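During the second half of the funding period, the structural biology subgroup turned its attention to how the target accommodates small molecules. The most pressing case was flavin-adenine dinucleotide, which had performed well in the primary screen but for which no bound structure existed. We therefore specified the complex as follows and requested a full 3D prediction, including the ligand pose.
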Amino acid sequence: MYDYVIIGSGIVGTNIARELSQYQVKILVLEKENDAANHQTVANSAIIHSGHDPKENTLKAKLCVEGNALYEQMEKELNIPLLRTGAFVVAHNKDEELMLDELYERAIRNGVKEILFHDQEQAFKLEPNLADDITKVLSLPSTKVTYPWEVAFACLENAILNGTEFKKNSEVTDIKKEKDYFKVEINHKVIIETKSVISAAGVFSDQVAYLLEKNVPYQIYPRKGEYFVLDRKAKGFVQHVLYPLPTSKGKGVLIIPQVHGNILLGPTSNRQDEKDLLSNTRDGLNQIKDDLHTLAKNIPFNLIIRTFAGIRASSSFDDFYIQESKTYSNFFHVAGIDSPGLTAAPAIAKYLVDHLLKHHNLQKKNNYDPIRPKKTVFYKLDFEEQLALIKKDPRYGNLVCKCEKITEAEIVEAIHGPLGNDTIKGIKKRARAGSGLCQGGYCEQTVLKIIARETNQPIDKINYYALDTPILVQETKVKP
Ligand SMILES: Cc1cc2nc3c(=O)[nH]c(=O)nc-3n(C[C@H](O)[C@H](O)[C@H](O)COP(=O)(O)OP(=O)(O)OC[C@H]3O[C@@H](n4cnc5c(N)ncnc54)[C@H](O)[C@@H]3O)c2cc1C
């Protein structure tokens, strides 16, 4: 019998698992996909927002500001990347400047500590590529950028180190309440027993809740966000995250420097019915190009290397819905977690444990270890360190991904690491092989061979992503 089953291994489920793993409880994280962090957590803007924008007196506002601060602690404990960009919200005329003033007041009331204005001259000194007609900017120095799925992996690895169990390819297909425990059915086959269930199932939260409850107090309304990715050669085009003024549809189309030097342009925000239709659209991509001209000039569209889309778990509740079920005690909804859910995730986990699980009287473990060791990133080492590593392990001398300078040793580590994976996309998410200019055109076949060798599988059984997505489907040449 588990104490807690957590449904979903996105940034929210993994933070909850880590937070709970401090206590003397038995935890299982269930994930329907072939890897952790495959939905919203792998397709977003990667911004750790300051908290200037959510409506006042909402959980979104409170947990965003708290989450932003908690990332500083997570950086130290989990060795996650954080790029302290700061952010500018821009105004183009007197009316928009008044709206900046309102945003300033809201940020103060939300608890954002650092916030200031720059006039046109100061702003252009700091960001020479701002659009010429910008008259004033609101500066938010606490805004930063991270690598979202790496954070989710780090939390889950750390939770596993502290005793949490993780099962992937495990879709929750039914939930039944017995007298004082739940029966959770996986893949229509296996039944698991647990005293409590925490649903952190992203866009699927309402569907998961309907497995148990007749009346679910929120509905998920999926909202797609599309992006362009610029190559690392664009690094330095802007230093700050650039936001337009927010509208009722959200924070708008942004320019976002990324931790590895790329720049994201996007996202759009368009309602759609499908929860997993991730295709890009001509209208969406054109909208990004049109909207961005109000933010910056000289945008290097010639450096676009790919497009992608993510789907927000927006809900009818109009705030994060983090509550115990009204009908079934010990079933906890963590739903409607759209933006700023990445930022808020560590604070969501604390809120759940400190407030909703208070009556569970959790006892701390005395051997909890909050530290996740630092990963080797070969290209960031200096020459002497690189030589020493190659001497110790010659696989560091074999550069597999030429664009991103990723070595064979790093790919092998991604396969066998604490949260290892044997798919092309899994390796891309962990080691970044295939993330560069050629998008895997050159290295994918080598990565394929390394996965086959390391996992002792035939090469045509290696999947791209989910189960049954092999890259090689049949032989195309007759052997001599
Ligand atoms: C376009 C876009 C831009 C965004 N930008 C930002 C940003 O810059 N900053 C920010 O703070 N936030 C941002 N967000 C929001 C942020 O990405 C999300 O709030 C956050 O990732 C939500 O994490 P999650 O764990 O709740 O959901 P998810 O990452 O979607 O994880 C839910 C998991 O549950 C699993 N699951 C679902 N059903 C089942 C089942 N039946 N059984 C087992 N597993 C199941 C899914 O497979 C999935 O892995 C953005 C979101 C989008 C889409």
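Two results from this model are relevant to the next phase. The first strand starts at residue 2 and ends at 7. DSSP finds twelve helices and 22 strands in the chain.
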